Amino acid sequence: MIINHNMNAMNVHRQMGMNTVNSGKSMEKLRLGLRINRAGDDSAGLAISEKMRGQIRGLDQASRNSQDAISMIQTAEGGLNETHSMLQRMRELTVQSNNGTNNSDAIQKEMDELKSEITRVASKNEFNTKTLMTSSLGSKAADGTVTVADLTAKGITTSVVGVKS
């Protein structure tokens, strides 16, 4: 029995298979727009790329955390501005009470209401369910292992600002 081999046809078939695989890889790169699609393309480049992607995700989260901190500080600032306005009014009432022409009972009543309002603002000024104007709040912002900031709120009460009954 004679077996005929067509070596040229077999060689063309093998080359055609390799060209099909290579064109498939090229089409995948064009379709995805990436130089590295899998570890087989460039394993070292893929490792570097994934490390950089992780760093980018970490920096994006740090940016979101910073924006949240800005919002929290703006909320606390609103409460402090309100407290400042009330303290200014209390100062005005104190000056008025010294001239002797105003009703001291009415002034004392307004002072007591302002004092309780300052306490209420301090206890109700919240951001993301955390009370901002009490001594229980503390937060840290960090990049890797280096601490960037340590923000600790001191309690705001009527005794801290020197308001007495």
Automatic annotation (TrEMBL):
GO molecular function term, any single one: structural molecule activity
Gene3D superfamilies: f41 fragment of flagellin, N-terminal domain
Alphabetical list of InterPro entries matching this protein: Flagellin, Flagellin_N
Organism in which the protein naturally occurs: Clostridium botulinum
Domain named Flagellin N-terminal: residues: 3-133
One cellular component (GO) term of this entry: bacterial-type flagellum
Pfam families: Flagellin_N
Membrane-spanning segments: none
Domain of life: Bacteria
Official protein name in the record: Flagellin
